[in-house]
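DM from R.C. (forwarded with permission)

"hey, sorry to bug you on a friday — could you get me a structure for this? deadline for the figure draft is monday and I only need the backbone to look sensible"
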Amino acid sequence: MIKRNRNMKIIHFRLLFSLSFLFSLNMNSQCNNYSGKKILKGNVKEVTEDGVSIDASSKILRINTNIYTKITQFNRKGMPTGYVFAHKNDNYKFTKALFKFDKNGYKIKELRYGLDNKIKNTLSYKYDDKGNEIESRYFIGNYKILDNYETENYNEKCNLVEKITCFSDGQEWLHYKFIYENNQIIKIVEANNNSYDLYENDSIGNSLSIKSFNEKGELEKETRYIYEYDTIGNWTKSTSIENGKEVWIETRKFVYYNLKSN
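My reply, with the result:
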């Protein structure tokens, strides 16, 4: 039973990881720059993200289902200070997450609340002297039970080159290696089975396509991405096209400190 639960967690984590990492690819190297800062154009105050799943299996009807909504607040220094999140599985009821920072302005704690407004999960973070996140720990409740932890390694340009996730007992869960060209990610390898993804990016680091290969080197999936941008230069819509079919739409609505919402 434990093994099955861990396998389900791995599947869920891989999905979250692929989405979160994809939309942070346009971050530059983090030398002497806190890695928790979101790289966005303009003085962003708030971002509302919506994830929409597309079911185009029917030739007659295309079904678009909103999966989640996330609203993130930023301070005037461009640092995210917390967010609220609503998911289809929770009947779109919002929960919240609050961030705590150290004297350097680095996020050291993230408190995630449940629908009952009690702390459901806690995350803690550690950084090196260049501001790169080198360790995160995920707890059930308010530091009650350690569930898993991550360690991260960087190259001389402060690009992330390795991420290892382990269960609380130290058993390795996930192990990714990152390969760069011209300071942009071009390949992610899952070290446990040698499956990998190849990335093609635009000039600012947004992914244009990802080709996913299994451990035998066989192409399993190709995903292309199409973007729309606001007048500031932040993308407001990303459409994912998997093997020729639209499967996912990500939208972002921005509110700026010195501008009206876009």
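R.C.: lifesaver. Residues 8-19, 21-28 have pLDDT under 50 and may be disordered.
me: no worries. The first helix runs from residue 2 to 22.
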